[in-house]
Amino acid sequence: MDKSWMTIKNRLSKEYRNGVNSFVDFAVTNLGSDDQIRCPCLKCMNVERHFSIVVAFHLIQNGIAPSYKTWVHHGETIPMNQQFVSNESRQPSGESVGGGVAVDEQENQDDLERLVNDYYAAAIMNDEELDELPDNVETENVRNFDKLMKDAHQELYPGCKFTLLSFVIKLLHVKVLNKWSNKSFDALLGLLKELLPTSDQDIPGNIYEAKKFLRDLGLGYVPIHACKNDCALFWKENADLEKCPVCEEPRYKLDDGKGKKIPHKILRYFPLTPRLQRFYMSSKTCTDMRWHKEKRVDDGVLRHPADGKAWKHFDRHYPEFARDARNVRLGLATDGFNPFGNMSNSYSLWPVIVMPYNLPPWKCMKQPYSIMSLLIPGPIAPGRDIDVYLRPLIEELKELWERGAVTYDASTEQTFRMRVAVMWTINDFPAYGNLSGWTTKGYLACPICNEHASSQRLRSKLGYVGARRWLPKDHPWRRSRLFDGKVDHRERPIDLTGEQILQQMSKGTYKPFGKHPSNKRKRGDPILNWTKKSIFFELPYWEKLLLRHNLDVMHIEKNICEALLGILLSIDGKNKDTEKARQDLEDMRIRLALHLKRCADGSFEKPSASYTLSPEERHGFYEFLKSIKYPDGYAANISRCVSTKGDKLTGLKSHDCHVLLQRLLPIGMRGYLLKDICITLTELGNFFQEICSKTLRVEDLEKLQDRIVLILCKMEKIFPPAFFDVMVHLAIHLPHEAMLGGPVQYRWMYPIERLLGTLKGFVTNRAYPEGSISEAYIVKEP
């Protein structure tokens, strides 16, 4: 038996792997069974037993004990002149085991060493075509692995608790968190090289050398050039073009043939597959990725997206995908933000974030488990052209659905084919239109009501009234003319399937992507509110989903709260009870007491309404807000939004509106408004309290659906039609979406906005914010 392979250092070489295969075949043949056998790797040391495929993997990952020259545990005969000491269990530190090798037990193995081991071991197991790779690729992988393992063990100086690898990574983390410039970081590295008793060749000399550690760990991104008009990417078949294939604009800002070519725009693409595979490389998270199936309690209570109808509907349509709990279900979110924090400077960056829903509630949607897959450059928002930038991600998602990726599972020490599906998107309402292709403006602004949306032209805007359509057919309010001067016997809108939506899209023709001035929409195109066929429909399963795009409860709450505060407190610029709103009432011949009254001098007087507070009452409400004390962590100090004079309310954040609408507004308005109005505000606050609960029941959501219809009908009898924009109308769809997708905590923008705030903090070079964010993000990833 040839055992020369045991001394080969390149464990990725063909000779070493062939030797491993011959060893496993020898053991199985001599032991007469393919059951678990002893593993002679440097970690197991012939103590642990595994299946043969796991033993082969361990020998490639960890190497074989060099002194185990006689394979006595695997059927080889012991020579008479050679003695052997057998050990059935792990020995104390320093004692010999297996073939007489001294091993020191390390109870607390360094996390970075485990990361290096797992990454390169998984790279071997995940590579289906390793035998076809040239030898120089294998040698490079082994060289990187050996160097990283050396750095993961090498102390900065004798007795130091930091290894070289942990020191560099932690130093990069400190740089990102404290926004050090590259120049100051290079200066610090230069000082440390002189200060520490380590050779100059060990500690990196600059930021570039430090980041090479991260690239060797498999982290990084792919820069892809884009047309300045958002027409196309210079990617794949367009990678070598010098001009945009659509508008023929030049690819580069400056190209004189001498200096460096500078592209107009660069899309940063962070490959998704290796980042998802990392969840299974770590023993800390791979079991959590199966929580949704193995540990989730199915008792009819909605606690997780897996409890919703949409998830279960997907499982019924794709049972093969659902059979393996390790297949990944993702939510995809995107939103624009100004990286400079100065709203007067118009600049909009659009990161695309994905979140795995396999995780348990205490980890799902948290920042360490959210992945930035794309960073779409500014300064102008992509709008409907966002599909151009989503192309690399969609291509990867299609590959992960159809073929999957061979992935190593650290908990079972086996490989499996990981498949991935996107369950839905999360975004505010304008981004909803960009991703879905349905314009969220105009008469048909509601994408769920679709062509059956209820809206009407008012004096100054469009009003989205008509909640009576959801009432029972025999309800007396349907016959009342107090709402808009008409009776309403219309049916409630029906929910369209993915097939019906595709049929609608196929009837229209759409202009090409891009913002070039010559790119104009042709008359008559498209039909309804469709502006494009969304790129998400290229995913084979997208049309089968029950919930493709989520309405964002966070922004709906904020808009409703601001609208209520504006009309109740008569806030300039936000008060929808204007003179034209009163003229709308006159046009509809309703609420005669609120019609404008002509004065003797020809001017008009606007009668006071029962839903508007007087100046003294407004002052009392502001004093109420200033007097409230909150438990720690419950809410921000809303009193900071009340002006020093106590006559203005400005600067409310989304969570401030969340607390105001649900808790403070119903209480603060008691004593100032009529009882019926106060009851309606209380019912509205209770509705959002229940819809935002962490646990929901389907029967409770069905009751909430009936309640929100009545609440909106009451509000239509109280406030003028101009109050009801599309954001107020969208509240009527929230209970149904909760039945489909589960609790809103997994489908709203709060965690995404927090992540955007973190990314905004990464900007150190204001001339290149995209580059600053990308470089800082890959440093923070480990």
UniProtKB/TrEMBL annotation:
Pfam families: DUF4218, Transpos_assoc, Transposase_21. It comes from the Eukaryota. Residues 3-76 form the Transposase-associated domain. Transmembrane segments: none annotated. Residues 691-781 form the DUF4218 domain. This is Transposase.
